[in-house]
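quick one before i forget lol
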Amino acid sequence: MTESCVFCQIVAGLTPATVVRDWPETIAITPLNPVVDGHTLVIPKTHVRDFTTGAYVSAMTMHRAAELAEDSGPMNLITSKGWQATQSVFHLHLHLVPRAENDGLALPWYSGRSRRPQPRPSSRRCSRRGGTSSPATPPRHPTSRPTPTCTRHGPSPATTDDPQAAARTAD
């Protein structure tokens, strides 16, 4: 334990926190100022400065974050290394940030120095009868991936984020 580290103090029970889940090597808590409902921090109980120190501890922390988020919807997983990268507590922690369309969060960020990648034409066959895939259609939300579009059937139900698309047929 590092005495001046707030996360070490939380792990030791010296500083109160709202515990979401507690594992033998990791703890998940609600941050003091969550950016959205469900925002969670996953923190190793061993003091590790960031994700580049202590590969096993970092991997186990990531494993627990994935376990916690497994049945969740869209989400950002964020960690930082160094104050220039917005690390404010120098004890490894992963932010699990649930996302929703129009949630007001400023992610993803763009530097303005490069363009967003353009979809590549696809020569894949449509998973349904006939048709070939045309270039991907633009995503409906900035964080969505482009959806391959079949020239005969429209967007692929397996890749669209429309939950009712799988139930529809174009024939």
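fyi The helical segments are 6-11, 55-69.
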